[in-house]
Amino acid sequence: MSSQFFIPDPDGQVPSTEGYFGAFGGKFIPEALVAAVDEVAVEYDKAKQDPEFARELDDLLVNYTGRPSALTEVPRFAEHAGGVRMFLKREDLNHTGSHKINNVLGQALLTKRMGKTRVIAETGAGQHGVATATACALFGLDCTIYMGEIDTERQALNVARMRMLGAEVVAVKSGSRTLKDAINEAFRDWVANVDRTHYLFGTVAGPHPFPAMVRDFHRVIGVEARRQILERAGRLPDAAVACVGGGSNAIGLFHAFIPDAGVRLVGCEPAGHGIETGEHAATLTAGEPGILHGSRSYVLQDEEGQITEPYSISAGLDYPGIGPEHAYLKDSGRGEYRAVTDDAAMQALRLLSRTEGIIPAIESAHALAGALDLGKELGRDGLMIVNLSGRGDKDMDTAARYFGLYDTDAEVAADAADLAEIEGDAK
Amino acid sequence: MSGNVQLLNDTLAAAKAEQRAALIAYLPAGFPTVDGGIEAIKAVFEGGADVVEVGLPHSDPVLDGPVIQTADDIALKAGLKIADVMRTVREAYEASGKPVLVMTYWNPIDRYGVERFTAELAAAGGAGCILPDLPVQESALWREHADKHGLGTVFVVAPSSKDERLATITAAGSGFVYAASLMGVTGTRESVGEQAQELVRRTKATTDLPVCVGLGVSNATQAAEVAGFADGVIVGSAFVQRLLDAPDEAAGLAAVRELAGDLAKGVRGAA
């Protein structure tokens, strides 16, 4: 019987054997890592063909993660999006609280198959780090997580979670002290310890085979959502919407819909304080083709190829690169990418919380903010799926400071007034 | 004007004729300043270096340890441009008449334009490039332009490189082969392991190009040890550390000149 939840790309046309999605992808890595990266590719190809691998992963995805994840209709929220019909794909309900666990369990099984005993990973918001620490606890693997120092501060709860799970968390103090620098440091560790260490990369970027392999582990999101929406709404959606940092939850949702030409694939990038301010991480909107962390894609860079420091209120989207398959979808016109500011995302976060009783991660709130605009464009007959990639518990400190939810009366009162305004808008 | 790959070949051949290893020094451009960096290169040539690699500082130096990261940060914060790197190459070459290479991550060249970069480097008197994150499979465009402009392409090999891959890499390279002594990033190490010697042996089995060893070498004793089995000894972080530690620029120049002198004795077998 074929696997229900591990559903690698059945088409296999992209990437090419060299790891190219059109002009993007490839393998720009130091010679010292070539053998290890090739080993991952070979072992993944073997695992993909092995029914035992699929059986093991399926079992974990059902009985540990809790798949399939729900598809929740959100009519009260959708009233603020012009009355469009909107469903959320609830990756926030997975064990550990985000989509990240799908990829992590797949690569953790692969780590065991390669006979490696130690795992390293980067993390931005901490969701990939928590998922990785979780899998390492489950499989008895040594675990080191690299996290930018700024992110260890703004996502302190997740740092504590990782340590509780037995992982070593290293705060990276170089560069912009965010996700890109955590990846740099993880690569440095990997070069030095590659014999016994697997780099459990957390997004659909990096050298081949990571973009394709991580996508395959997340394809289940879109495959489930496609089946669920056909059952619930009786037709395919007009749009599938997701936030995009490195792009893993977005490619997971989009991929099963790529052959459905009528389904718009809409990625929401972090515009931070606004594209025009230069303080953003909107790589596809404002970047240029270049090479970062092992593959060619769009990159935020200056005219001489130095990577520029990104900014987003969301630690998970605060990255100057993007997975090469998204660059390919953008250039081919199959994908659409728009930018969402910090403020728009935070408003959407609060709106979903108060209309539906679901507190989203700030990352996912970028998709929700994009969906509010897109819903108005689609109108009342429109139908859309938004990937709720993670839950917002980790972001409560940032959100409380943003909205003034701690015990300072004036600000709490202001928050209440804002809300009355939001409710008024919808009428 | 054509680049100086032939000067690089001749320099390494001359060292071999003297039955010694060549001394290859790495210094980042723009550190501590652009002019200070040029003076530092002149000083290591005066001290006895045969070849210099000029680093092009990068925002994301994933193959470098803390010492070179620090130097790169200082250079970039001061606004270093590729034009400054080219000026560094030109002045270092004109002052010394010796081969000067550039070592850089691939993205700056990709962004700047391969033709523009190779043309400017050749015009500055450069001898070639070391591109540590451009694997041989992705290097065809670079090599086409480098060949056209008389520039060498130095590939890095690592202890993890399999024999058949070594053959592919060395067949595509020119100038010399950079053998990474160990699995890790740049920085000084207590010892240079046996795996370096084994890698040099396996690499030499595939090529007649000189094989030079880098990563971790910081003193004359290590240089002498490596000179016993390799055609060249590459030293980087130890020079940068001397400049970082110096109280002023003059002291820094004296320190790197002295270190180059010690290492030059080392590569002649005297530790």
Automatic annotation (TrEMBL), chain A:
<dbReference type="InterPro" id="IPR001926">
    <property type="entry name" value="TrpB-like_PALP"/>
</dbReference>
<keyword id="KW-0456">Lyase</keyword>
<keyword id="KW-0057">Aromatic amino acid biosynthesis</keyword>
<dbReference type="Pfam" id="PF00291">
    <property type="entry name" value="PALP"/>
</dbReference>
<comment type="pathway">
    <text>Amino-acid biosynthesis; L-tryptophan biosynthesis; L-tryptophan from chorismate: step 5/5.</text>
</comment>
<keyword id="KW-0663">Pyridoxal phosphate</keyword>
<dbReference type="InterPro" id="IPR036052">
    <property type="entry name" value="TrpB-like_PALP_sf"/>
</dbReference>
<comment type="subunit">
    <text>Tetramer of two alpha and two beta chains.</text>
</comment>
<dbReference type="InterPro" id="IPR006654">
    <property type="entry name" value="Trp_synth_beta"/>
</dbReference>
<comment type="similarity">
    <text>Belongs to the TrpB family.</text>
</comment>
<comment type="function">
    <text>The beta subunit is responsible for the synthesis of L-tryptophan from indole and L-serine.</text>
</comment>
<keyword id="KW-0822">Tryptophan biosynthesis</keyword>
<feature type="modified residue" description="N6-(pyridoxal phosphate)lysine">
    <location>
        <position position="100"/>
    </location>
</feature>
<dbReference type="GO" id="GO:0005737">
    <property type="term" value="C:cytoplasm"/>
</dbReference>
<protein>
    <recommendedName>
        <fullName>Tryptophan synthase beta chain</fullName>
        <ecNumber>4.2.1.20</ecNumber>
    </recommendedName>
</protein>
<dbReference type="InterPro" id="IPR006653">
    <property type="entry name" value="Trp_synth_b_CS"/>
</dbReference>
<keyword id="KW-0028">Amino-acid biosynthesis</keyword>
<dbReference type="InterPro" id="IPR023026">
    <property type="entry name" value="Trp_synth_beta/beta-like"/>
</dbReference>
<feature type="domain" description="Tryptophan synthase beta chain-like PALP">
    <location>
        <begin position="65"/>
        <end position="390"/>
    </location>
</feature>
<dbReference type="GO" id="GO:0004834">
    <property type="term" value="F:tryptophan synthase activity"/>
</dbReference>
Automatic annotation (TrEMBL), chain B:
<dbReference type="GO" id="GO:0004834">
    <property type="term" value="F:tryptophan synthase activity"/>
</dbReference>
<comment type="pathway">
    <text>Amino-acid biosynthesis; L-tryptophan biosynthesis; L-tryptophan from chorismate: step 5/5.</text>
</comment>
<comment type="function">
    <text>The alpha subunit is responsible for the aldol cleavage of indoleglycerol phosphate to indole and glyceraldehyde 3-phosphate.</text>
</comment>
<keyword id="KW-0456">Lyase</keyword>
<dbReference type="InterPro" id="IPR018204">
    <property type="entry name" value="Trp_synthase_alpha_AS"/>
</dbReference>
<dbReference type="GO" id="GO:0005829">
    <property type="term" value="C:cytosol"/>
</dbReference>
<comment type="similarity">
    <text>Belongs to the TrpA family.</text>
</comment>
<feature type="active site" description="Proton acceptor">
    <location>
        <position position="64"/>
    </location>
</feature>
<keyword id="KW-0822">Tryptophan biosynthesis</keyword>
<keyword id="KW-0028">Amino-acid biosynthesis</keyword>
<protein>
    <recommendedName>
        <fullName>Tryptophan synthase alpha chain</fullName>
        <ecNumber>4.2.1.20</ecNumber>
    </recommendedName>
</protein>
<dbReference type="InterPro" id="IPR011060">
    <property type="entry name" value="RibuloseP-bd_barrel"/>
</dbReference>
<dbReference type="InterPro" id="IPR013785">
    <property type="entry name" value="Aldolase_TIM"/>
</dbReference>
<comment type="subunit">
    <text>Tetramer of two alpha and two beta chains.</text>
</comment>
<dbReference type="InterPro" id="IPR002028">
    <property type="entry name" value="Trp_synthase_suA"/>
</dbReference>
<keyword id="KW-0057">Aromatic amino acid biosynthesis</keyword>
<dbReference type="Pfam" id="PF00290">
    <property type="entry name" value="Trp_syntA"/>
</dbReference>
<feature type="active site" description="Proton acceptor">
    <location>
        <position position="53"/>
    </location>
</feature>
